Amino acid sequence: RMMVVEERNKDILGNLKRFTPSDRIFPDVRSSNFHTVAVTLTDDFKPGDALAPYPISFTPKWHKDYVPLPCCDENIRTFRKRVVDENTGGEQGEPTFTDIKVLMWERIQSALARPLETCEDIASAMKTYCKFNGSLIVLEYTLATLMSPEERTLFFSKTLPGMVTLCLDLRKIITCGLPFLCRFMNYSLTLSQKQIACLLANAFFSTFPARFTYEDDFPSINFIGLLTGNGDDSRISSMGHKLRCILHYFERVIEEMPKGVVTYTRKSVRSSKSPDWSLSGKELTQLITLHEGSIETEGERLLQIDFANKYVGGGVLGHGCVQEEILFVIYPELLVSRLFTERLVSCEALVITGCERFSKYKGYASNFEFAGDFVDCVPWNSRARKCTQIVAIDAQYVVRHTDQFHPRKLLREVNKAFIGFSISPGSSNNVAVATGKWGCGAFKGDAHLKTILQLLAASQASRHLVLFTFGDLFLQKEVEEMYEKIKHMKIKEVWALLEQYNKLFCSRQKPSLNLHEFFTEYIQISNYSDKESMETDND
Ligand code: AR6
């Protein structure tokens, strides 16, 4: 039966509206009080035209609201140097030290100007400006094990020199201050793909200074942890394959720099402004379940969901290798969001519009593997952006199973999904949401509950919901059964059922009835009223 359902749903998926170049996708690429556009994009721009940075010359901003760029003159570090007493040759008495102020950009420039012919050359160049112990073992592993001799030669002869040039041309390529996207801000930043490549080259060589005093509120950006493996050899394979994807991206952009732009938008609402779920009279939209396919492939040009960490990208530069981390290495332009996106709080999402996919992959988690070049055929629109929109929303980690059904937790998750799915004013298109077991892998959430919450959020946002169960046939079957029971209800009725379920079945560590049983058996038997008898039955 599920095969019939799968085929039917594939047909429905095939007929869903997807983003097209003529859609107006929010936000438009135009500077405003809420949008910094780092390039000049005039109204007569045609796709393929070169994009000049804006403003014409480097206008540094060393200020708490802006990303401290490594090439700023204020990027100075003080090093303590031992002073040798000329009379004693330093052999007697207490050693003395003096502070030396170093212009870091000069140091980085001279370090990377050296010939870089081996991994050791890269490590010793980086050690002159970046603190780390040991060697770049993941880079060594990637070059030695995951690349053919021809690919290695290409790396040292072309890709690496190209990355150095991109890195050191920072002042020419990015001329404006890059604002931080901080909590409670509704703000967008548009960068050209070349600017992103330049920032990622800087991240690779780990040139970024600390983001003033707020470093802990931001995800890491320098790749040093990924290159060295953070001292853990056991994940070297998946880390190596993640790095292989990133190096493949550099191979591609150095061969031919893409000419589009990408917009990073932080969306934030006060929780008091979120919908009142218990009053919403909206009907449920369509739920389409598929056990085959993935968000990024079959969900292309739908609203693709990133199962995020509050620090966007999660463990991508460390050991993590699940949905978000994989997404960030096959679409490496997502990585740059880590430079300026402060950790997300509730009722906030990060929307990335226009990024390009560069790699194929196979396997998952510790079996993850780079599987070659990916040519992203998603078209660009007239504003130089690919018709791809990815939304990062972070679910909450579930410690005690029944806690997630508490109304406070329901509210947090449904509002989080809603801010991600909601359509911004000015957009012409409410394409369906492509999602899956959001919050139900590393974060251990209940897949039935998360599906219902995502369905409510999508319905409120007037979008259909495509649920990729990622091979989980059983979940597909159960979700289909649940949806069958509730598809004619209003949002407020489903919300009331969730609250009822929490009251009746979630007082203990383990619910006496799971949510699927509750939706498919209980509400039918009880007709929403005869609760006691059922509770007793299930005890
Ligand atoms: N398409 C559809 N479903 C997928 C895909 C895909 N491409 N990849 C995985 N799944 P998880 P979470 C399914 O654990 O629980 C990261 O470290 C698969 O069944 O990534 O929200 C973040 O940075 C998987 O078990 O999401 C966060 O720290 C399930 O989706 C944390 O994990 C959930 O994927 C978020 O964990």
Please specify the SSE layout and strand pairing.
Elements (H helix, E strand, L loop, with lengths): L1 H14 L19 E3 L38 E8 L12 E8 H10 L5 H9 L9 H9 L3 H20 L1 H4 L13 E6 H12 L19 H5 L7 H20 L5 E8 L18 E4 L12 E6 L14 H8 L6 H4 L7 E6 L5 E4 L6 E5 L15 E6 L12 H15 L11 E3 L11 H14 L4 E4 L4 H14 L4 H15 L9 H12 L4 H8 L1
Parallel strand pairs: 1-4, 6-13, 7-11, 7-12, 12-13
Antiparallel strand pairs: 2-3, 4-5, 5-8, 8-11, 9-10
Helix pairs in contact: 4-9, 5-7, 5-9, 9-10, 12-13, 14-16
Write up what this structure looks like.
- With 539 residues, the chain is α/β, with parallel strands linked by helices.
- The chain has helices at residues 2-15, 104-113, 119-127, 137-145, 149-168, 170-173, 193-204, 224-228, 236-255, 323-330, 337-340, 407-421, 447-460, 473-486, 491-505, 515-526, 531-538; strands at residues 35-37, 76-83, 96-103, 187-192, 261-268, 287-290, 303-308, 348-353, 359-362, 369-373, 389-394, 433-435, 465-468.
- A nine-stranded mixed β-sheet has the order 1-4-5-8-11-7-12-13-6, with helices on both faces. The protein has a two-stranded antiparallel ribbon with strand order 2-3.
- Helix 5 (149-168) crosses helix 9 (236-255) and helix 9 packs parallel to helix 10 (323-330).
- The relative contact order is 0.13.
- The structure holds ligand AR6.
- Ligand AR6 is lined by residues 294-296, 307-309, 314-315, 320, 322-325, 395, 436-443, 468, 470.
